[in-house]
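dumping the sequnces here before i forget
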Amino acid sequence: MRNSPFFHFLTLEFFKERKKHIGVIAISLVILFLLSSVLFISSSIRYSLEQTLEQEPDFVVQRTQGGERVSVPIEWTDGLLEIHGISSVTPRVYGRYFFKSKEDSFLVVGVDFMDEQSHKALRTIMDETDLKQFLKGENMLVGEGVSRYLKAHFYPKGYTFLTPKGAFKKVHLFKVLPKESNLIANDMIIVPIELAQEILGMSEEEVSDIAFNVPNDDEWENVEDKISSFHYDLRVVTKNDIKKAYENLYNYKGGIFLILFLITMVTFVLILYQRYSMVYSSERRHIGLLRALGWSINDVLKLKFFETMMVVVMAYVLGVALAYFYVFVLGAPLLREIFLGGVNLHNSITLVPILDFGILSSIFLIYAVPFVSAVLIPVWKIAVTDPKEAML
Amino acid sequence: MIKLFYAVGALLLLIIIVMGVHYILGDRKSVSDGVNAVAGLTRISSPSFSVAYCEPRIGGVEEAVNIAYPEMMPLDRMDFVYAK
Amino acid sequence: MIDDVMIIIENLNKHFRSGDALSKVLKDINLEIRAGECIVLKGVSGSGKTTLLSIMAGLDRPSSGKVLVEGESISKLPDLHISHFRAQKIGMIFQHFNLFDHLTAAENVMIPLIPAGLSMDEVNQKVQKSLKLANISHKTQSTAGRLSGGEKQRVAIARALVSDPAIILCDEPTANLDRDNSLKFIDILGQLHDMGKTIVVATHDPLFDSLPFVSRIIPMEDGSLVSTVPNDTLAES
Amino acid sequence: MNEILLNNQVIVYLLSESILFGLLFIAFVITVGILVGWDFGSYSEQQFRLERRAYLVMTILLFVFTVKFLLLAYFVFAIDSLSLLVPGAMCAAGVISANDYGMLLLFLKLVILFFLLLWMALNRYDLNAKNYPLFRIKSWLFIAIFLVIAIETGIDFAYFGHIDTLEPVNCCSTLYGQLEGANPLPFGLNTMTLLILFYLLYVVVMGAALSSQRILFVAAALLFVFIAYYSVVYFFGTYIYELPTHNCPFCMLQKEYYYVGYLVWGTLFTGTYLGLISSVMEMGLKVEQGRERSVALILLSIFVLLCTAYVAVYYLRNGVFL
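..and the predicted 3d for all of it:
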């Protein structure tokens, strides 16, 4: 590279038209920054969601009447236990508790702390001493969003729930769940199972739904067939449905954004076309002189091609780096709301840095192909200027 | 002039290297550990309300949802797949 | 004898179509230039000498007729070949010097060599040689924009000589020069003539009338040649 | 809009394809204009303008070729990422067989890349000759390529539009697997004879190239591609996956096999294309294409080396063949 005169001349030419190139790079930066930060955020959240799927139970049995999920009687668990190949059947109690203004809601989750499996999980969240203390009184574990919300509404120590039967349940706020678990636990309140049933107005032997695992993958189909024949109003949700739901959710958001983004690409292409074909007579004489000195159209095209490639690569690297810094270092302060919704309780999850080949090549293609196709014709027009221009 | 070009090239390379280092050192484990700890306890790992739901239902009036009972999920919504 | 004829032009004419009017610029020109000859095309501006020169240099295409350089017709060459021809065989010196002001003298002189794809040190070697020939090598690294008229002209000469072309074409070289710079230009031209280069100068500067090394002066009037008068007879009378 | 059309990669792919088609349409209109007015002998300004326009066609085609080359890899990558959405598809094979446009589309893409490469070789020869001898042939070839690309772009939209995300597709094990004893190999070969043929053809190709018998080279190269495809799918592939029953040309393009598929198929097809084109150019136009031929031979050797290396490494590690 160093000893080719063409490369030397290329750098001279490139820096001669600095102002034009810097202008074009600036426009491209805006477009690239917006596009890549949206794609980074969506892929980062999708990656974190896919991570949570490992903990997801393989099957969830629910009861639906009139399109509305109703609670499941506890006896269904014995029916499930008889089927071979099913393990760790856990009834779950959860529901939405609406705060007084019916605007925001908490996810109240009941956990049977006596069960050894959840006992072990509890130990990862808090150490031994708090554990005994926690199990004694009416305590609750609270997500970060909930604790912030309660503090804002002057309930720093605990909260008194109003049960449907009119009784007041005062529950002491024991501990806030770690910040990293915000993705799922931001608006979550974990209470003992009996208390949860009381708050959500369920009787003792009613649960929200029943989750269980089927370790042997090949059995999933026949287990699902067996279970769905148990009751008429039974509904089974498998892990694949959830994976596809996540995929569709982020395809939907990403896709809509990309299609709207095409409009900006069209304006970008028009700007470029106009910018590159606005050729001053000095530029025309400049190329005419080059041609007069023995440069063929191919050589001028090669020169212009390399110039465009330098602009494209520079803009791409700067754009992606800027977006990477904005999303994964600053945490995408404003742009994140598109994806986090910002509804209900404010959620501030940490975005895990994720770059995969698919995103980088998509960004490059959606930027470079329109760019070069917009610039192709003006560059050709300049390259074929007649050498006799130099004589005038 | 060629020196200026090498300077710009070196700057871009530096940016890429810094990005690469930050990417490799990025801690992916802490987020998944936190989430798995809570999910292990509650056995629920669907995203919290604000992450999962699509915008249209929240933003404005969605004809399928009855205002008086917002928690009644319309059947055809994607979020019905695993409603809370 | 025929083999050492450098340029042959046979009934060449050139017309420009502006709207429907057809303005004939060159009318039926026939000219033969032998190798090593130095020709002066004399004529007022607008007599078509610049157009003839640019056609000879392959910058422009004739409307009809043939231009043969070293036996090869260049009027119909595709662009790739005519550019190589210009780069290797033609050294152009323009009226307004046509230097790249933002580049240094060495970089300006280097430009014709770039398409050939030589390595950097070969190019530097040739550039230094031609700068020394045009005795401007003391200004190698200064940017062309800041040079004086005479120095610019000498850089232009160096640029024309860098690929060691057989033909040197000058279009009004002394128009923008003062008297002593013009004389300096003329003795450089003399050195080129001694080196055996074929030189064609299009000018209306009287300085070129009585030069020892000019073999023929060809006056031109509105697009056609007046009978060529051999220089030696002109010198005596 | 079904989920497929909303997938980021599919949108970017279709956008790039339609932009390229737009450029090609411009080139097509210009080429028709040139073909009508082309008369090399004339000195008219019109003729010189046409010659300059020919350069625009050349630039467009150069750009289209490079992007289409990248888009082929991107297409396979997009299909691979779609396999999550299509039920029953574990890799790109399932998604491609989701409807009957898939295989045709992939075949068309490979054919188009070959003819684009051929066009560029002709164009380089045409520019070097002094009077554009091949201009008409080159332009007619381009018009043919343009029509094929128009069909390909149409099939692109048709293919992605008709992928059904509910109805399950069969995965590569059924498409390429051993169907209860039926021998999938051509000409009734078994694995051993297939291998012998594979290496034999490779030697023949190298020999023909070095001793420059071009017709033999073309025949051997074509046969070699055919045999190489089957030997990679049914023999070398099993060593890449380290699973005797896993025969699939697409799974090696995935992340867990470190995207080796792109290298395997890339070297095979590029090497064959360059080899075929350089020999066609030498036979047809008597122009020396030594450089392209040596690049082709190097690429084919890399391909054979890579396949054999997988088998050798497996044998060294486990001491037994699959």
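Chain B has a mean pLDDT of 69.
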